[in-house]
Design brief:
Helix 1 crosses helix 5 and helix 2 crosses helix 5. The protein is α/β, with parallel strands linked by helices. It has a single domain, classed as Response regulator (Rossmann fold), CATH 3.40.50.
């Protein structure tokens, strides 16, 4: 059992409704022994039902998670802040110098699903992004320290 402190990651998105929620859940599920993950939004607007459904299909229940404003986490320290959309990258608040901010844009499932003709077609976007986020998380923490 390692006595090293866990790496603390904040996943930041615009609404903290979909991608950041998925990333938080995957990280805590797959890498919780090494990493403590949280998520927040610059303008939170509730948990996306499509994200809840896609994660449930993968065996993770995120229905109890909530959409949080990044300002409510300002008292916490993070080793990494990972912005998952361009808007969050532009609106990202300033963090202490020791916090490394990374940008890792993923497609926005709700935006892509808006033009879908069926629920199944809409869910394809959620599933693809869910799986892309999982693939990223599976490479943690090595991908974080590659450039250091």
């Amino acid at each position: 059992m390692s006595t090293e402190p866990k790496i603390r990651i904040l996943y930041l998105c615009t609404g903290n409704s979909c991608r950041s929620q998925m990333a938080e859940a995957w990280t805590n599920h797959l890498k919780g022994h090494l990493i403590e993950a949280r998520s927040a939004g610059v303008t939170p607007h509730g948990l996306d039902p499509g994200a809840v459904k896609a994660m449930a299909e993968a065996g993770l229940d995120i229905s109890g998670q909530s959409s949080k404003d990044v300002d409510t986490l300002e008292h916490l320290e993070f080793d990494y802040v990972i912005t998952l959309c361009d808007n969050a990258q532009r609106a990202c608040p300033v963090f202490p110098a020791k916090t490394r901010v990374l940008h890792l844009p993923f497609d926005d499932p709700p935006r892509l699903a808006a033009s879908a003709r069926t629920e199944e077609e809409a869910m394809m976007h959620y599933r693809r992004v869910r799986d892309e986020i999982k693939a990223f998380v599976e490479k943690l923490p090595e991908v974080l320290t590659r450039d250091e």
